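Incident log, structure service

09:12 report received: a user says their structure output differs between two submissions of the same chain.
09:20 pulled the input from the user's history:
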Amino acid sequence: MAARSRRKGPPSPHPLLQRLSVALIRVFPGAVLFDSALYKLTFEPEKSIGENLERFRTVDFHKLVGEAIADPPRIFGATWHGFASFLENVALGTPSWERFVCGSLLASELVLGALLVLGLGTRLVAVLAALLMTVFGLAKAAWIFTPNTSNWLLVVLLLAAAFLAAGRVFGLDAKLAGRWPRWIS
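09:34 re-ran on a clean worker, output below:
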């Protein structure tokens, strides 16, 4: 009599397809972060990076912070004024401080995006990027199930990448898996 399989249910998808899906969960948010920072730094190609950073500070950043202060995020129906006052007291200030904050945000987007695409330190990097995207989502006062929820989609993907250790699939973390602590890669 032939041996019967104990497995029930539909057959599992191809293992390569599963691995590609996990890698995509890591690469997509990384590419979005990297592209977003690169776009802000090269918005006007004929200008220098410093001039584009200044344009980002005076136009986009002030607009975003001003909107967050004017219309603070609402969480479960309650207005959260704490985040707006945080932005007003921490993000805004002297032009040199604002340049530092904007430069730090852009550098964070650029570095975190590149590390996610490469799959290096994915668990730690994905959690840090999820925190960054959470701040962006709160600053936009966009909550889940509202028209502007792309930040929250990226938060979910980044947390999934951290949970799945997605850097170990077609990433540099696969080479470093035994050398680095599990919470990093």
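09:41 both user submissions now match this output. Likely a transient worker issue. Closing.
09:42 reviewer note: The chain has seven helices and two strands. The chain has one domain: 25-176.
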